[in-house]
Amino acid sequence: MTDINEAAWLWVAKGAGAVAGSAISLAYMLPAGRREAAVRFAVGLVCGLVFGGTAGLKIAAELGIGHMLGAGETALMGAAAASLSAWWGLGFLKRAFGNGLIGRIFRNGSDR
Fold it and tell me: What sections of the protein cross the membrane (predicted)?
């Protein structure tokens, strides 16, 4: 009854990494309200679950530590990284579009 197959452990690792990454992203940039906090947490969770395995493999390969890590550790690391990265990318886009940076880039390019 306590036997959990390897696929279930990978899902648990991805979920734990995604939750950890989402929690860290909420802590380093506090949300404006409950709704924003819930949306940010959900996006981080989904990104961690979806991209956790692939991100973990890429990170392990780039660092040269793939042979030292198990599948669960790789999934945990990747899910946390994917969850955190989602908010860095979205934060950049929010600032770029919010400050009009993207519009200024395209306007300056057409003036030349």
Answer: 12-30, 37-55, 75-93
Instruction: Please report how many Cα atoms fall inside a 13 Å half-sphere around the Cα of residue 73, on the Cβ side.
Output: 7
Number of domain units in the chain: 1
Tokens 């961690």 — which residue?
48
pTM: 0.75
In a domain, 33, yes or no: yes
CA gap 80, 15 in Å, rounded: 9
| Per-residue pLDDT reduced to its tens digit, 52-73 | 999 999 999 999 999 999 999 9
| Range(s) of the domain holding residue 32 | 6-84
Phi/psi of residue 44, each to 5°? -65, -40
The helix or strand, by DSSP H or E, that contains position 1, with its residue range, turns out to be none
Closest CA to 27 of 13, 42, 40: 40
Tell me, yes or no, whether 59 lies in a domain: yes
CA distance 43 to 67: 30
3-state class of 53 per DSSP? Answer: helix
